[in-house]
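Researcher: Re-running this chain for the archive, since the previous output was lost when a drive failed. Same request as before.
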Amino acid sequence: KQKTAYEIGVRLVGSEMCIRDSSSTAREPRWQWHALTAGLLTRGVSPKPMVAALAGARVERRRLFHGWLAVAIGARTSATEQGEVSFLWTTARGGLCWNLDPEDLWAELCADVDVGRLRVEAAHAVRATTARRLWLGAGGHIGLAWPKTSRAFVQLQAGLLAPLLRDHVYLTPNVNVHTTPAVVPWTTLGVGVRFP
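Model: Regenerated structure tokens:
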């Protein structure tokens, strides 16, 4: 049977539409996860700025929002006339973020929570001792990642944290070495990988 030009045209259009639909669906995974390692700089955990190592991951939903969780550990020693005081800080930091969509960068706006421990040890001092304190805090941060679409990326984060427990560290006789401030600023710079 001889086919008309109209019948052939309709079949070609239908075939082309099916190919486009299947390819667009394959490009948009519902969930993505990212791994990240970074250096963290914070002020307020110890008398002087502290550098910490951070490693974490995040799970993203259709590029709209994501949850993230990381672990950080840092140490700093401060010397006074009465002795040395060492601070060891370990914390788990997590949060929920809204993904922003600038043209060339990947950006996030996040609410964060910290749960960890602060270990303070006095050495070469009168009545040298070690104290372990619970570290709790809440805050937020903004983050930028570049490039936006490649698997590997560089990320910068900057945020503020409000400690829920504010400690006072003293050395005998009644020398105040450190008081936890009401707001602790922090920033990270690191690299990450997107999967898949």
